[in-house]
Amino acid sequence: MPARRERYLLQDFPLIHLIIGGFGNTSFLVGSVFFLFPSLERIALWLFVAGSLGMFVGTMGEVFVRHARRSRSSPC
Questions:
Q1: What is the C-alpha to C-alpha distance for residues 28 and 4, in angstroms, rounded to an integer?
Q2: Which residue among 12, 13, 47, 53 is least crowded, i.e. fewest CB within 10 A of its CB?
Q3: Is 74 helix (H, G, I), strand (E, B) or coil?
Q4: pLDDT tens by residue, 18-63
Q5: What is the reported pLDDT for 25?
Q6: What is the C-alpha to C-alpha distance for residues 47 and 9, in angstroms, rounded to an integer?
Q7: Cα(4)–Cα(46) distance, rounded to whole angstroms?
Q8: Cα distance between residue 53 and residue 55, in whole Å
């Protein structure tokens, strides 16, 4: 059952990885701008953390999908 769920979430919806990565990139950009204002530094820090996590999760999901596709298509 986990393999089926894994395929459903990770391979059939590659747009999810793009959306999560885009969220991470946007959070990072907004956090960078917020660091220009001393009163927003705490929010900027948390946006950096959320952005980093989003970029990491999006990238790792895409790596997993590419690896799974490559291993399925390679002759054994």
A1: 33
A2: 12
A3: coil
A4: 888 889 999 999 999 999 999 999 999 999 999 999 999 888 888 8
A5: 92
A6: 26
A7: 34
A8: 6
Interatomic CA distance for residues 22 and 5, integer angstroms: 23
Q: Chain centroid to CA 36: how far?
A: 25
In the block, residue with structure tokens 């705490």 = 42
**Among positive and negative, which fits the CA dihedral 26, 60, 10, 12?**
positive
The angle formed by the CA atoms of residues 25, 53 and 51, to the nearest 5 degrees, is 30
Pick from 20, 12, 10: nearest CA to 52: 20
How far apart are alpha carbons 40 and 52 in whole angstroms? 18
Place of tokens 């990565």: 21
> What is the model's pLDDT at position 67?
78
Q: Which residue has the higher pLDDT, 52 or 2?
A: 52
Length of the chain: 76
